[in-house]
Design a protein that fits this description.
Blueprint (H helix, E strand, L loop, with lengths): L5 H19 L3 H19 L6 H6 L1 H21 L4 H21 L4 H4 L5 H17 L13 H17 L9 H21 L9 H11 L7 H25 L1 H16 L10 H18 L8 H13 L5 H6 L6 H34 L3 H20 L9 H17 L5 H4 L6
Helix pairs in contact: 1-2, 1-7, 1-18, 2-5, 2-18, 4-5, 4-16, 5-18, 7-8, 7-9, 8-9, 8-17, 10-11, 10-17, 11-12, 13-14, 13-16, 16-17, 17-18
C-alpha cells in the first residue's frame, strides 16, 4: 500500500465500517462518525488540488439542504428566546457531515470508494446471526438491544436492498464468488428481517421494488415492452410478499393483530394500551402540541415529555402512554411538535431533496453501475421516510450519523461527473 494513498483507503474503510457499526452497537456509530469526519478533513486539505469546481457544482443541492437543519434550529431558538443546544448539536452534525463527506469522497478514486459497499454483507451477516441467536429456538420475536425490533428489522431490510442493488456492481476481481456471496447475504438479510416480525418494513417494499426495476430497465426497449416487464416483475413480487406475509407464522399473526388493534382504536377504545393504539395516541398528542405551538414547537424532548402529561390530564392519551413514551413513534410528527414548521420543513427537505437527486440520476443515467448507486441513495431517503411513519428512526445520534454518511457516500458514487471517477491511481 502506498503511503500517499493512506487517507483515501482509510476514508473508504471507515465509511464501509459504518454499515456494520450501526447494526451492532449503540455508541460506536457516533464515535465512528467523528473519526470519519476528522479523516475527511485531513483528506480534503491534503488533496485540495484534486477538488474540481464542476464536480462540486454537481453536488451543490446537497450542500444547500445540509444548512437547513441549522437554520431551522436557529429560527426556533430565536422564537423561544433560548438556544436549543441539543437540537443544534444534531443539526450541526448533519450540516458538517454532509459538506465534509461529500467533498472528501469527491477526491477518493471511484474504484476505491465503491469498496465501502463491502461493509454491507458483513453488516447483514452480523445482524442475521444476532437476530437468529435472540429468537432461537422457538423463533419468537427477538428483543434486540441495539434498537427495538421495528427499527432493527427496518434497517436489515434497507441493507438487504443495498445488497440487491449492488448485484450489477463488481467490487472485487472474483466476480462469480462475489455474486454468490451477495445472493447469500440477501437471503440472510430477508430471513433476519422476517424473524424480527416487523410490519413497518413491508410498507417500503413497493418503493424498493420499483427502484430495483429501474436499475435493470432496458433503455432500448419500447415503452410498451418496459411496462409489460414492470407489470410482470411487480406482480410476481407482490404475490410473493403476500404469500410470505400469510405463510410465515409470526408475520401473519402480527398483521392480523395490527388489523384487529386498528379497528379497536376508535370511540371508547381510543386510549387502549396496545401497540397500534399507543402510536395513535402519541400521534394525536403530537398534533395537539403542534396546534398550540405551531411555529416553533415545544422546543425540546424534555418539553415534549412534559406536554404528554398535559395531554394525559386532558384525557387525550392514557396514563401508561404518557409515562412510558417520550417520542411519538413518527419522525415527521416529532419534528412538528418539537421544532414546529421550520424543523418540519428541514426534515422534509432532508428526505426529498437528496431523494429527488438520486431518483433523477437513476432515471437519467445510461450506466447501470451509476443507476445502482443512485437506487441505493433513493432507497435510503425514501426508506427512512417510510419507516419514520410508525417508528422514530432518528431517535438516536447513531442513525442520524448513518443517514448523513450514507447520503454523502451515494451522492459521490452516483455523481454524473465526478472528479474522483476520472482519476486513476498514479505511482508515487
Amino acid at each position: 500500500m502506498r503511503i500517499y494513498k493512506t487517507p483515501e483507503i482509510l476514508m473508504t474503510g471507515l465509511a464501509g465500517s459504518m454499515f456494520w457499526a450501526v447494526m451492532v452497537s449503540q455508541s460506536l456509530p457516533s464515535a465512528l462518525f467523528y473519526v470519519i469526519l476528522a479523516v475527511g478533513l485531513w483528506l480534503i486539505f491534503s488533496r485540495l488540488g484534486k477538488l474540481r469546481a464542476k464536480a462540486i457544482l454537481n453536488q451543490r443541492l446537497f450542500f444547500y439542504v445540509a444548512a437547513l437543519p441549522v437554520l431551522a434550529i436557529l429560527i426556533d431558538s430565536a422564537g423561544h428566546a433560548d438556544l436549543l443546544s441539543s437540537g443544534l448539536e444534531r443539526a450541526l452534525r448533519q450540516c458538517l457531515g454532509i459538506v465534509v463527506f461529500v467533498l472528501a469522497f469527491s477526491v477518493v478514486p471511484h474504484h476505491y470508494l465503491k469498496c465501502a459497499l463491502l461493509g454491507v454483507p458483513l453488516a447483514i451477516t452480523a445482524a442475521f446471526f444476532y437476530v437468529f441467536y435472540l429468537s432461537f429456538p422457538d423463533f419468537s420475536r427477538p428483543e434486540t438491544g441495539v434498537y427495538n425490533a421495528v427499527g432493527y428489522g427496518s434497517l436489515m431490510f434497507l441493507l438487504s436492498m443495498f445488497a440487491v442493488c449492488s448485484f450489477s456492481v463488481d467490487l472485487t476481481r472474483h466476480v462469480v464468488v462475489e455474486r454468490w456471496v451477495k445472493i447469500f447475504t440477501v437471503i440472510l438479510g430477508l430471513f433476519g428481517f422476517l424473524l424480527t416480525q416487523t410490519r413497518t418494513g413491508w410498507m417500503a417494499f413497493p418503493i424498493f421494488l420499483v427502484l430495483g426495476v429501474l436499475i435493470y430497465r432496458d433503455s432500448q426497449q419500447s415503452t410498451a415492452g418496459v411496462l409489460r416487464k414492470w407489470l410482470v416483475v411487480i406482480g410476481a413480487s407482490i404475490a410473493l410478499a403476500i404469500l410470505l406475509a400469510n405463510v410465515v407464522p409470526g408475520i401473519s399473526d402480527r398483521i392480523q393483530q395490527g388489523i384487529h388493534e386498528t379497528a379497536e382504536c376508535t370511540g371508547d377504545g381510543a386510549n387502549r394500551d396496545t401497540s397500534v393504539c399507543i402510536r395513535v395516541q402519541l400521534w394525536r398528542a403530537s398534533i395537539g402540541m403542534w396546534s398550540e405551538h405551531t411555529w416553533f414547537g415545544v422546543g425540546s424532548n424534555a418539553a415534549f415529555r412534559e406536554n404528554l402529561q398535559i395531554q394525559y390530564e386532558r384525557g387525550v392519551i392514557s396514563e401508561f402512554t404518557a409515562t412510558n413514551f417520550g417520542e411519538p413513534h413518527n419522525d415527521m410528527l416529532y419534528a412538528l411538535a418539537v421544532y414546529g414548521i421550520p424543523g418540519w420543513l428541514a426534515l422534509v427537505a432532508m428526505y426529498f431533496v437528496p431523494g429527488y437527486i438520486f431518483v433523477r440520476r437513476l432515471w437519467m443515467s445510461s450506466d447501470i453501475a451509476t443507476r445502482s448507486y443512485a437506487a441505493m441513495g433513493a432507497a435510503l431517503c425514501l426508506g427512512f421516510f417510510i419507516f419514520g411513519w410508525t417508528e422514530f428512526m432518528f431517535r438516536g445520534i447513531r442513525t442520524l450519523s448513518f443517514y448523513t454518511l450514507m447520503i454523502a457516500l451515494f451522492a459521490a458514487l452516483s455523481a454524473p461527473i465526478s472528479a474522483a471517477a476520472q482519476i486513476q491511481p498514479r505511482n508515487r
